Amino acid sequence: MANALAKDLELMFENVVEGYDAACVLSRAAETSYPDPQAMQRAGDTFYKKQNYHAATVSGLDVSGSTRTDVIDRFVPTVFASPQNVIYELDAKELRDSAIMTNMGKAAAQSLAAEVETTLYAKCAAQASIFVKKVGAISWDDGATAEALMISRGINSANRKLFLNPFDYSVIAKDLGNKAYMGDRSKDAYERSMVPDIATFSTFRTDQIANVTTNGTVSGTTVNANTSHTVTAMTGDLPTDNRYGALVVAGANIANTVAGAAFTIAGVNAVHMISKADTGQPMTFRIISGQGTANLVISPKIITSGPYQNVTAQAAAGAAITFLNNATKPANVFWAQGAVTLDYGRLAFPSGTGAQVMTATTKQGVPIVMVAQINAQTGKVFVRHTTLYAATVLDPEKVGVIVANQT
Question: Is residue 203 within 8 Å of 196, Cβ to Cβ?
Answer without folding.
Answer: yes
